[in-house]
């Protein structure tokens, strides 16, 4: 039996991924599978730029609004839920179209996660008390991982040491033991519009979020789920909370959200460029020519899969 076609749309925030995914799904009998970690949350619509239900063209959307703002959804949970959705869509004869900018979730879904030990709070606390020693400790336990993790990235260093000590094996060795997605043939389409134009679009989108009520949406989350809700760590909501607390003025808050979003877009591109098989389109996903090119790529991929 040949593998079922699967399409993923990746790229930085505000590059038009959602518009492009809708166009592909509409043209090719697809269903959309969200791969944005913040769009998983209910009641977070404005700050996440979710496509409103009345603009989804009747196309099924999956893994949107599945948890509350005070809950956590790990990459492992996303992997299990996402793979189940992919199988269900394929069983209906549809084409799953993954769309979103959370690269780590996409990697978990497609490549799998290594089966490392669970967190040990006591060990983490002890390691956190010695930040200046973390790199040297990891060098002794796992030189390969130590060379890959920046000496200032305390969180990753602690996790790597934790895995080495609890599993009694190097993290770099355990990471090779993943369970990749089976039964699907993946086509990845990436959006890479000109940086200057992307940053302008990001700034405009951030401004529009505040005009549409991002502060009020943040107020609602604080009132119903507490100011320590995990979701409030997201860009936009974090700054809005500081504005509510009087720590930032409105102009300062908007400028900071714009700056942090531009920086996030840059990190996204760094992540997605690691995949050499991505088909890059050098424009925005909402543009007609881009849609036509992407639909042709996806259509050819689907036909190839069903010819096997």
Features:
308 residues; alpha/beta; Rossmann fold; Histone, subunit A; six-stranded parallel sheet; 51% helix
Concise overview:
The chain has 13 helices and 6 strands. By secondary structure, it is an alpha/beta fold.
Protein model, in words:
With 308 residues, the protein is of the alpha/beta class. It is built from 13 helices and six strands. It has a six-stranded parallel sheet, sandwiched between helices. The relative contact order is 0.19.
Helix content: 40-55%
Gyration radius from CA atoms, angstroms: 21 Å
Highest-level CATH class of the largest domain: Alpha Beta
Number of individual domains: 2
Which runs of at least 5 residues are low in confidence (pLDDT < 50)? none
CATH fold-level label of the largest domain: Rossmann fold
User: How many strands?
Assistant: 6
SSE-based structural type: alpha/beta
Ends: how far apart? Answer: 8 Å
Major sheet: 6 strands, parallel
Widest sheet: strand ordering: 3-2-4-1-5-6
Average pLDDT reading? 94
User: What fraction strand?
Assistant: 5-15%
In the CATH classification, which architecture of the largest domain applies? 3-Layer(aba) Sandwich
Order of helices and strands: EHEEHEHHHHHHEHHHHEH
Supply the number of helical segments: 13
Shape: globular
* CATH superfamily membership of the largest domain: P-loop containing nucleotide triphosphate hydrolases
